[in-house]
Amino acid sequence: MTQPARPDPDAIAALFTGADGGFLCARWGRPVAPVVFGLDDATLSVFRAALIAPFAHAGQPLTDTDPETGANLMIFAVRDWAELDGIPDLDRLTGIPDLPGRLMAENAERYQLLRFDGAGAIRACLTFLRLGGALAQAHPAQLAESVAVNALLSWARPVTPSAPLAALIRAAYDPLLPACARDPSHALRLAARL
User: Fold this and answer.
1) Highest taxon of the source (predicted)?
2) Domain at 115, CATH number
3) Domain span at residue 170?
4) Phi/psi class of residue 92: alpha, beta or left (left: φ > 0; alpha: ψ in -120 to 50)?
5) What is the pLDDT of residues 7-36, one digit of tens each?
6) Residue 2 burial by CB count (10 A; 0-12/13-18/19+): exposed, middle or buried?
7) Is 142 in the same domain as 99?
8) Do 143 and 90 fall within a single domain?
9) Is the same domain home to 65 and 126?
10) What is the pLDDT, as a whole number, of residue 175?
11) DSSP string over 34-101
12) Which of 40, 75, 96, 151 has its CA 20 to 30 A from that of 83?
């Protein structure tokens, strides 16, 4: 079996370049305090255990409580987007009016929203999962790994966990690199660490 190829600087830059052409590679600037809503106890224990591993691999600390917000990685699992209507102050929490309606209209399976601190590092992540569609067949551990990998960096679009991506995440968490970079040349620095 051949090993997956390491991404080159252009491929790395593409992972962090949005539709507007802007480059943003940001990592967490504080310990991550995760909380998961909507899973039964048996599923939750598997999900939590699998969620921890990608953060540990990156060297990103986890904590029980964020001093500002309590939880700063909030994961909402619902069967259908309409269930989000039951979350108090969802519009205020996300800053997006009628998020459930928008997600229903797009027939989305997942949605992620990142918040950044003054230095540009990630300070919070909200992840919404619709488990009544295609994700219904996903194993909780695989789903948790995907949530964690997508929450660890400011990817321009959702990514699928892989060995090369794990190495890239670890490189991005090198303490010698800035927590936020907006210049595409940052991809060269990441590639050099692979």
Assistant:
1) Bacteria
2) 3.30.379
3) 1-27+154-194
4) alpha
5) 899 999 999 999 999 999 999 999 999 999
6) exposed
7) yes
8) yes
9) yes
10) 97
11) EEEES--HHHHHHHHHHHHHHHHHHT--B-S-BTTTB-SEEEEEESSGGGGGGSTTHHHHHS-TTHHH
12) 151
